[in-house]
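Please review the protein record below. Tell me whether the encoded fold seems credible here:
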Amino acid sequence: MKSCTVAFLCLFLATSVLCCNKNDATYPNTGIIYRTDDVNNEIAKGGDNQKKSSPLLDPQELNNKLRSMNNNDLFQFALICGNEGNYAAALMAYTTLLEKDKNYPDIYYYQGLLYRDMGLQDEAICAFQTAVTQNPASAEAHYNLGFAYRCKGLHHEAIPQYQKSLALLSEDKTKQKASVHYNLGFSYFAHGMIDDAIREFNQALAYKPKDREIHQKLGIAYTAKGWTDKAKDEFLFYRADDKPPKKIP
């Protein structure tokens, strides 16, 4: 009977894998996870590059426009178009930039984010793999590679990427750490490693103790262990006030 319960709970969690989208990879109210401040500030300034975003040009005109830009303008143009949902223009900008400079900083990381937003998980994985090869000290790249693996159901591959991200994150990055611990717990659970999942969910709660979504998943993990009293406490917290929970991937 217990094995049937565990199988059911694994199936319940697995359904989330089929719903991966660009919002899933972010922690609430943080935007794209780990986006660098300098990029955010550049977009927020609303400078000349922002005025050039999302042009209504045919492919040839757009191609000519992109080739007239310098590398930094191409990168900012791609970021802005991607944020606005103009994926075709963003992808063309990244492709043009890669033709000019394959070693442009963070190019593969942000291209991976674009592919993820487009739902192209295989392409996102390839881009993030290149990003971590070029910059193995990037907690962001490891996290997003892990999440791309998760969206493909490849939890065994996702786990070490989350672990590397945690090792690289400083303690003051509390929201990010909570998100990575949560996702690591999710992948442990999906991989049948219930004790490890419980540990990671509790670690996530250490950073976000009132997060109802984490309490729910911890309750599911406790149920899989047969710890019904502990599970009940977590589910009671999850159902508090019957408010919709914040979404965490």
